[in-house]
Amino acid sequence: MSELNLYDLEKYKSLSSLEDASNELKKKEPKFKELLKKIMDLAKSRKIELGLRLIHSHDIPLEDGQAMVENFGNYQDKPALITSAAIPNRETYPASWILCDNKYLVFEYSTDLRVKQVYEKLLEDSSALDEISAHIRQYNLDSLIGPCIVAREAMTKFDIGQGQVLGEDTVKVGDKYVNIIQSRPNEESKHIEALWGAKVNNFCMTMVKCWFGKCDYH
Questions:
Q1: pTM, full prediction
Q2: Which residues is 211 bridged to in the sheet?
Q3: What is the pLDDT of residues 98-147, one digit of tens each?
Q4: CA-based nearest residue to 55, from 93, 3, 13, 116
Q5: Which domain holds residue 209?
Q6: Alpha carbons 176 and 54: distance in angstroms, whole number
Q7: Would residue 88 count as lying in a domain?
Q8: How many folded domains does the chain comprise?
Q9: Please, which domain of life does this record's source organism belong to (predicted)?
Q10: Bridge partners of 215?
């Protein structure tokens, strides 16, 4: 049985920036497209709420003991998944992983109920996660891509479709920066795809797009 709750802050800090990771992935686009098709087919056929995550450092400083933790909330009166530096606890669950030396290291945590449910199933049987990870390693993309849980109970709160997508920005709230994922118009401006999933059910995210630049909101 794989250990799924290991965390290494120094490994996280060594990750490439979002833009550098995306640029490196573009150089390997043919391999990534093959991998993505395999994972999407696997997720649909087995109805598993797992997908792929672009592994990168966030432009948010982490102190000892802290990790990136996602919570559901509201931002500017709209539903949002808000990820910030926090200390993981009993109510936080691994939502994505870095593949490192045949181990799973947590990339991001979440407090979402659906993440908890999928994670607990993986603790009982990690074969689907292991299969996805084997495919990632087979294509030598483990320095850029990691497996993730794409389901969120909070997805029922978002307006997706009809020109709306899940978009991610880094914004300043008070005196700290946080990552905000909200539904927003599918703009043509420059963005980076950072999560890929299959529409297994209404809880699944199928893509998250990160827009460049920080928005300084207080």
A1: 0.91
A2: 191
A3: 999 999 999 999 999 999 999 999 999 999 999 999 999 999 999 999 99
A4: 13
A5: 9-215
A6: 23
A7: yes
A8: 1
A9: Eukaryota
A10: 171
